[in-house]
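Two proteins follow. First one:
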Amino acid sequence: MTEPSGASSDKPRRPVVVPAIALVAFTAVGITALLGGLSEAADEPEPLGQGAVLDQGLYSTRFVESRVAVERAKTQFDEDKRFVELVFDVTNQGDETFSVGLPADKIEQAFTSNAFAASLLNISPAFDKEAGPFAYALAKGGQTRQLQPGMASQVIVRYELKDNERPPDRISMDVASFELEPEFGSNIPVWKMVAEEVGDKWIPEVKARVTLTVKKGDTA
């Protein structure tokens, strides 16, 4: 007798075999969806340390070290001063002279500058306003605030420590980069900091996150 259509069968159902690679793919898709999609996943800044070299577009920068330096008193009426210094070897890769500059007080202010030190964002731990920063490049004649095209210069960014203030064990900073873009109202390319428009502000994009151990020696 023919079994009615749709009737249940006592025969055991054969298990459906799903390849392991398919399960991995399904899991990956699920995780990607949970994170908001591949296109929306934010890239973490490149972590760098002492001795690393970063191509910032306008500048090629080697992160030499961070250290405590002492400036000895010149007279008996003066006092020794201590500084935390950030030391960089910076090559100006442009075709004109640019400024050493200073780190900006606020990250949204950095975008307006193409000076080297303006690309040093979110320096942590933060120092008091009275501490600086002070910045300059070393030249044969002493100190300069200019970076000549095609030349490598050692740049010092320093913060003064208060009496009995302990220097930090390490310093971290976010570093921005630059790219050539047509100047507003003309087709002349100029170096501008890479940034993203957020509301009515331009926020620099972080190219790398650098952490340097502060060398204290016998001066801390």
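Second one, unrelated to the first:
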Amino acid sequence: MSLIKTDHIFLKENLANQEEVMHFLAAKATALGLSNDENKVYEKLLEREAEGTTGMMDGFAIPHAKDASIKEADIVIVSLAKAVDWHSLDGSPTEFIIALFIPDSEAGTTHLKLLSNVARLLMHQEVTKGLKEATTPAAIAALLNSKLAEN
């Protein structure tokens, strides 16, 4: 089974700021059946961000929510039509979001493994370049699934 699903990837979304991105992620998590409580997911995304930025380097962010309303660990990916400020580690605006949704019951296990695997992938220029150049959800899913399978 592939971890990254094409119907969980949204390209060139017109979202103006980090708050709009978080609302979009929470809405998609609910629409995709990952959670039954959009407001709770939104709250958890904001709570995690308040602990410290999830904005990484080179235009990427890895926001994540852990909550009992989340049914199974999953990932939603969003690329933005225009980069937004995310208070990233390198100060650059964010244009590519890889959001993790984790059930409370898997908070210390699946969460940490997924987060470290995704963060590790983003350290490789061929991955970040490939993600930014991809023009279809299928291309993004294929790239990430092949790299995640190597770990």
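SUMMARY FIELD: The chain has a mean pLDDT of 92. Residues 6-150 form a domain with the Mannitol-specific EII; Chain A fold (CATH 3.40.930.10).
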